[in-house]
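Progress report, Aim 2. The chain analyzed during this reporting quarter is listed below.
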Amino acid sequence: MALRRVLGLGGALGRRSCCSKRPLPPDFVEALRAVVGGPNVSTAMAVREQHGHDESMHVCAPPDAVVWPQAVGQVQELAALCYRCRVPMVPFGTGTGLEGGVNAVQGGVCFDLSRMDAIAELSLEDFSVTVEPGVTRKALNSHLRGTGLWFPVDPGADASLCGMAATGASGTNAVRYGTMRPNVLNLRVVLPDGRLLHTAGPGRQARWAPEGPGCARWGGHVGAHSPAPCRKRAAGYDLTSLFVGSEGTLGFLTQATLRLHPLPEATAATTATFPSVRAAVSCTVQVLQAAVPVARIEFLDEVMVGACSRFSGLELPVAATLLLELHGSQHGLAEQQRQAEEIVRLNGGSSLAWAEEPEERGRLWAMRHSAWYAALALRPGCQGYSTDVCVPISRLPDVVVETKQDLQDSGLTGPMVGHVGDGNFHCLLVFDPQDPAEAQRVHAFTQRLGRRALAAGGTCTGEHGVGLGKRALLLEELGQEGLDTLRRIKAALDPHNLMNPGKVL
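Predicted structure tokens for the chain:
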């Protein structure tokens, strides 16, 4: 329904969804200023509109006020204030989401957590790090430079790490290193009424404070002085996994303890072109079946390759393409390359030229990460919408081929790209929102694709989350009892429906 409203297929484009907005209580803004100081509160329309949308096509829905807390205690005070006054609360990280997750559809207060940017602790021996919500993945990996460790979850955008946890983000490295869910060890959550929860227990937090200039912000201590959550746990319900993917509907993620990984000794990347979409996707399945330990294996159809080539200035053959990257030791990498080359050849793919230098690999992956903007450049002035289905690997070739045919039959501009190593792919639909007929075709296509994925045993969203646009499909995916169970959990933690209302459920 949210997609229909945005596309102009039902109701006014600017209408708030779910229920009407309530005005802020008298003197409420002054109470906010009393907590965080005047400079850290804004009711200016330009600031509110900036915080009322993400990178998605969903219509901007600005909050009534924006606050910038700088410590967890301030988040608790602000949340308690909003809870007492029954004011909706919306968490905000970097605004790079793709499902309208930050749109304040019922108004209220936007909590911009970007100024809480401390890397509180780093434990090299335990392969873990604890970060606040203002720390982005690029900032963390820059901080880790020289340690031999890195955080590999890479959704493309330089998103905040707590925001990535909130949406259950994934990316190009998930086939080797997993999504956010297995890489989050503990979360510090401010609940809607201001109480503080540590999802793996408060005893799993650091028992010391960094010392010296700059350490409190970027963490000067590493090693054995920094206790971290254990890797195995069978104690009670898995609260951490409950909040990973909760999309800001259960509480504020104000700190995350993350699993780190050793940097590979050697890395090589390449592209391979294929005579058809089916051949490229079938090659992916066979690479995985042969247990080739690929770190990345990305699919681009010929439309996406052409768009990325023009946008990034790289010359690639306009054909169905796989981007592969291998991680390992120098000796092991040679064997992996041999295996990959053989499987590519058996599927009619091109010969492979491996890029092993960081600069060369960087250009290749920069091209891949620009896919969204390359797709938008196909039709300047139009809007984009990214689908996000994920299906079992065994069904991937059929579902991708059927979707490709559906795109062509629908007459839509929708280059295809995907993290096919884990069955996840996107159609980047570019359309004119002022053309009702085209908007209707986009809506119908997204519904067919979502149901095609569900019929194949997959999900309507592999990494972007439900947000505003996939609530109807969530019911079809989980069933009524599943959705009712989610609602009971939500009601237990947020009985007044104040945390990011109108999203997911």
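Residues 1-19, 205-226 have pLDDT under 50 and may be disordered. The two ends are 12 Å apart (CA to CA). These observations will guide the mutagenesis work planned for the next reporting period.
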